[in-house]
Write a structure and sequence with these properties.
The protein is mainly alpha-helical. It has a single domain, classed as MetI-like fold, CATH 1.10.3720. The protein has 14 helices and no strands. The longest helix is centred in the N-terminal third of the chain and has 37 residues. The protein is elongated. The protein starts with a helix and ends with a helix.
Length: about 280
């Protein structure tokens, strides 16, 4: 299995390999945050608004909290929200797409009308209202983001199931008495999993940006110290744009967020090209 994964990775283009390296580095930074950050991420460890250098490689914020430590621990929040939302949305949407596409009839009609409603709803305003209503916590943010993300894998999986259920081996399995759950685990899931995996990577980047946006608006978990929350505190500091403080307090978390989202986009493009060879041509 590991050999197959390595062979697949070798087929990546240069941007895809670079994106994979960046995500692995971010993952290591998140795991090893207590080891690679000298100072704590939640209490003051020096003078306020110290520029990068000396004992603070990326400087400090207005409370004297080390910015490098905040970014290291903020990587945990971004990865948790991104992959947690993608996993929850992909599982829920994928299962609903399989059931809807295979059964057809009124379950399919109900699901498609629900998807149409979710698509026309403005995501950000409704997410802001729900995040404010349920309260600022990471679990609530993941649930709110997953609520607006399941429609994409559901539509993709449903379209694939509509084609798969007409194939001869599926008809033969039904003739011999195969039920919905057997067909789902033995035939449908292996066929649609590559598409769902590609969609999960894309949803991860979308969820990370959405969480940063909610945190930037002050609706994130105030104890999480995510990258969006760091940017929120920086932009709320009076005179941030009239001083040099933005050069480290605002720039570094913004760069970390942008680089991570772009890396996920590169990986998603490479996986999509491998799933659909027509894109490679």
């Amino acid at each position: 299995m590991l050999v197959k994964i390595v062979e697949r990775v070798k087929e990546f283009s240069l941007p895809g390999k670079a994106g994979l390296v960046v995500i692995l580095v971010v993952l290591l930074v998140a795991i090893l945050a207590p080891c690679i950050s000298i100072h704590p991420h939640n209490i003051s460890s020096g003078p306020p608004l110290v520029p990068p250098g000396g004992g603070h490689p990326l400087g400090t914020d207005e409370l004297g909290v080390d910015l490098w430590a905040q970014i290291c621990y903020g990587a945990r929040v971004s990865l948790l929200v991104g992959f947690g939302t993608a996993l929850l949305a992909a599982l829920g949407g994928g299962l609903m797409g399989i059931v809807s596409g295979y059964l057809g009839g009124w379950p399919d009609k109900v699901l498609m009308r629900l998807i149409d409603i979710m698509i026309i709803l403005p995501d950000l305003p409704v997410m802001i209202v729900l995040a404010a209503f349920f309260g600022p916590s990471l679990l609530n943010i993941i649930l709110v983001l997953a609520l607006f993300s399941w429609v994409f894998p559901a539509r993709i999986v449903r379209s694939q199931i509509l084609m798969l259920k007409e194939r001869s081996y599926i008809k033969a399995a039904e003739t011999y008495g195969a039920g919905v759950w057997y067909l789902m685990w033995k035939h449908f899931l292996p066929e649609v999993f590559p598409l769902v995996a590609v969609n999960m990577i894309r949803l991860s980047g979308r969820a990370i940006v959405a969480e940063a946006g909610l945190s930037f608006l002050g609706l994130g978990d105030p104890t999480s110290k995510s990258w969006g929350l760091i940017i929120h505190h920086a932009t709320n500091f009076k005179g941030i744009y009239y001083t040099d403080f933005w050069k480290w307090w605002l720039l570094y978390p913004w760069l970390a967020l942008i680089i991570m989202v772009i890396s996920l986009a590169f990986i998603s493009r490479e996986l999509e090209r491998m799933v659909d060879p027509r894109l490679g041509r």
